[in-house]
Specification:
It is built from seven helices and 17 strands. By secondary structure, it is α+β, with helices and mostly antiparallel strands. A five-stranded antiparallel beta sheet has the order 2-11-10-6-7, sandwiched between helices.
Length: 325
């Protein structure tokens, strides 16, 4: 059958949805009222309707009372299924929660809260983002269900959630009731960390900051640099070699000299996104090593610090940096 129900869902009520879009874009919870719910037959519903028409024609031609009875009985079931599909969505409340921060190339995750403030149980509720697989849930009476929806994070910066579709084909699958929601929530996407780390930049002392410089001691792990002939085999990152990556040497710092500046000028000669990826790798490695570090970007300076909040502050600065090339 050449009829595409999904195409009907997209194009027939397009002008209706455009009128609702402004009012459904909000930070407060969205309640699925009558004006927001649309209903169309599914493919099985179209086949069911055609079958009823054939039965009606046959019953009329042969004046078959039982045929009329069966036809009208099935038609009434179809009409009742429309009512139940609508009631399965009506008056549900959808809240948009916070989205955890991710790195470019990962899946952005958005947590939604679906509230049912009525005694009626809601079954087979489907939620999904554009071009993503649906998540099906049941929401019992007077209860709340949290749903996590994902979409690819293909670029750094703020990634708004795409249109959320909430739908149901309960109870018979003959019709689909659905609503499109534009929720005001977004996910912060950090730059993609570089796969391997370049040579670490000059230390604070070497840049005139009057701080002690890093040494290749053996106390605390600091990060990685490219392998040089003569490096101790004990300091080679053999796990990276096993993964097919280039030879890297582990760097260690003395415990009293664990401060480092990461500067935009330390990664000259690379494209903007490559620069950000390398700075991101240095920040992650320094945080894992417990090294105190600061960040200098065009128009932004983050002083020396340590800890998860400091790391996220630096990564956020990288994520939101405007392209300079």
């Amino acid at each position: 059958m050449g009829l595409s129900i999904s195409a009907l869902n997209r194009y027939i009520p397009k002008f209706l949805r455009s009128e609702r879009r402004v009012s459904s874009t909000r930070t407060r919870p969205v309640v699925l009222s009558q004006q927001r719910i649309f209903i169309l037959p599914t493919r099985y519903g179209v086949i069911f309707a055609l079958l009823l028409f054939v039965m009606l024609v046959g019953s009329t031609n042969y004046s078959n009372s039982l045929g009329f009875l069966l036809t009208f009985l099935l038609a009434s079931l179809g009409m009742i299924s429309i009512l139940h599909a609508y009631r399965n969505l009506a008056r549900l409340t959808v809240h948009a929660g916070k989205a955890p921060r991710v790195f470019c190339g990962q899946q952005a995750r958005y947590v939604l809260q679906v509230d049912n403030h009525h005694k009626q149980n809601r079954y087979a509720i489907m939620l999904h983002l554009a071009q993503q697989a649906p998540v099906m849930i049941d929401v019992m009476g007077n209860s709340t269900v949290n749903v996590e929806l994902t979409q690819p994070a293909t670029r750094r910066g703020w990634l708004p959630i795409s249109t959320v579709t909430i739908a149901t084909r309960y109870p018979l699958g003959l019709v689909q009731a659905w609503s499109h929601l534009n929720l005001m929530t977004k996910c912060l996407v950090y730059p993609r960390p570089a796969m391997s780390s370049m040579t670490l930049p000059a230390s604070s002392a070497d840049k005139g900051d009057n701080k002690p410089s890093h040494k290749s001691g053996s106390d605390d792990f600091l990060g990685f640099r490219n392998y040089h002939p003569g490096d101790s085999p004990r300091h080679v990152d053999w796990k990276a070699v096993a993964r097919g990556q280039e030879l890297l040497t582990k760097l260690f710092s003395d415990s009293e000299s664990r401060e480092q500046w990461f500067d935009w000028e330390d990664v000259q000669g690379l494209e903007t996104e490559e620069r950000l990826s390398q700075l991101c790798r240095w920040i992650i490695d320094a945080d894992a090593a417990g090294c105190r570090y600061g960040l200098r970007l065009p128009g932004t300076r983050i002083d020396i610090g340590l800890g998860a909040d400091h790391k996220h502050r630096c990564l956020e600065a990288l994520a939101l940096l405007e392209a300079t090339e």
